[in-house]
């Protein structure tokens, strides 16, 4: 099989940098075209010296980049960029994975409400496949346009999926209390993300409503076949990578949730259900495409507490995007994604 010719738009951001890291050592992919407005004309390894010896490519400007000669283009751009460029690529037979949120919500009115502008190509929204392989593996194989999930949604949906799919969480609200490292906010300069502002500090944000709430709800309601109340509160913590989601649901006391999760995820290459009562750490998934999950029960009340950790840049973004690429191009799903975590 010929290597997949890959383009990346937004190669200078954290998602794009992580995509380059993974794709440069992928045995079946070939980086072909890297777009950046700020670094156009410069060698990739001059901008990112950690990639010296791995690539001779240059960043190219949007106007000159030949994206239509790619087999697949990843968008790792801010929300609202991909939706303006994707229709032309699809018309030219190029498949697309968008790491941003442009194609994640099926309802264009909901998108406009949360993202503050009308959707540029609402006619495409029904054909999009939401790129969570644990939910949509079969549909991903034929997908032309994949909406890669948000980082928090990946951690939270995987935490609740077995309960909702089996109907085991019949009562009350689902609660997701999530913490993210600051790389989740991207690489652009923001005062609130400076070392002096963030270190020795800890805060919630988006408590009245974060844009990942409708995304998580859309997926979980579809699995449950009904609308469920969901409370989601994100926090930013002084670390670089990682998401830790502590998720709560009320479950009938007689259900063996450990067995349920082990059975649901037993064939999933990138979800690891730990022994009951474990405490997964974000460091244990640093740099790898993996969600580790652990279950707890504190009493006979029926509440179950699900702990879910991912690396926001890998299973929460670039790694999941490569997993989706593998499925779309008929490769073994774990091609180029079998690494041990970086610890410490
Ligand atoms: N960081 C994370 O953990 C995750 C991020 N995501 C999503 O992935 C996307 C990328 O995130 P991240 O890499 O963190 O973001 P960054 O801010 O780090 O990078 C954004 C990239 O987009 C380019 N860019 C900025 N504005 C435009 C524009 N108007 N048109 C074209 N390119 C533009 C920038 O490069 P240049 O200016 O050189 O063109 C840069 O390479 C976002 O939508 C984000 O929400 C999803 C899951 C997790
Ligand atoms: C810590 C932090 O700021 N995290 C980001 C997550 C961004 C992200 O990945 O979300 P989208 O892909 O949906 O834009 C935030 O809450 O905005």
UniProtKB/TrEMBL annotation:
Q: What is its EC number?
A: 1.2.1.38
Which keywords does this Swiss-Prot/TrEMBL entry list? Amino-acid biosynthesis, Arginine biosynthesis, Cytoplasm, NADP, Oxidoreductase
Please report the stretch or stretches of sequence annotated as the Semialdehyde dehydrogenase NAD-binding domain.
Answer: 5-143
Coiled-coil region(s) = none
Query: Does the keyword Cell membrane feature in the UniProt annotation?
Result: no
Kindly give the SUPFAM superfamilies that the UniProt entry links to this protein.
Glyceraldehyde-3-phosphate dehydrogenase-like, C-terminal domain, NAD(P)-binding Rossmann-fold domains
Q: Extract one GO BP annotation from the record.
A: L-arginine biosynthetic process
User: What is the top EC class of this enzyme, as a single word?
Assistant: oxidoreductase
**What is the first-listed, main subcellular location in coarse terms?**
cytoplasm
Entry GO terms, CC: cytoplasm
Q: Where in the cell is it found?
A: Cytoplasm
Give, as in the UniProt entry, the pathway in which the protein acts.
Amino-acid biosynthesis; L-arginine biosynthesis; N(2)-acetyl-L-ornithine from L-glutamate: step 3/4
Where are the active-site residues found? 151
Molecular function per GO: N-acetyl-gamma-glutamyl-phosphate reductase activity; NAD binding; NADP+ binding
Catalytic reaction equation(s): N-acetyl-L-glutamate 5-semialdehyde + phosphate + NADP(+) = N-acetyl-L-glutamyl 5-phosphate + NADPH + H(+)
State the source organism's domain of life: Bacteria
- From the record, give the transmembrane residue ranges: none
This protein's record includes keyword Oxidoreductase? yes
Indicate the family of this protein.
Answer: Belongs to the NAGSA dehydrogenase family. Type 1 subfamily.
Q: What does this protein do?
A: Catalyzes the NADPH-dependent reduction of N-acetyl-5-glutamyl phosphate to yield N-acetyl-L-glutamate 5-semialdehyde.
Task: Provide the protein name.
Answer: N-acetyl-gamma-glutamyl-phosphate reductase
| Source organism (scientific name) | Acidihalobacter aeolianus
- What gene name does this entry carry? argC
